[in-house]
Amino acid sequence: MANEAAGTVPAPEEANGPILHLQHVYLKDCSYEAPNGPRGDGNWNPQINLDLHTAVTALTPEVQEVVLTVTVSAKQADTTVFLVEVKQAGVFTLQNLSEEDTKRAVGSICPGVLFPYARAQVSQLVTMGGFPQLLLPPVNFDALYAANQNQPAPPPAAQAN
What we know:
By secondary structure, the chain is an alpha+beta fold.
């Protein structure tokens, strides 16, 4: 009874409310390439390119696997110094969400949860490869999601006769 008075037992209306729950976070795949190793002429000023991609797989109607792929390439004078790709995955329970809220969750919230894990993996791989520590800047997944929503849909592919 004391627990009920303290508010630890959810009210029935709360049990039917929207739920976004992280079940698991795991490294699904990673790749590191440094064609010439950490050799250099002492002039370390590479061009860093960051590419992000999110994929979603429905495991059940209410459980989604979200995979955030982070690809980082470093080039110095047209030569690839290193290339890192990390696929950071998470299993999320999504219940009682509207279609729009579900899209926003898997396009913005879930990648935002996964990014710090991927960021740490990228940093570790680069450092283990003998290069200076690489800390990726924070990413605003809400802004990326909004920008993708405002872009017109690509035209349908022409059908072959």
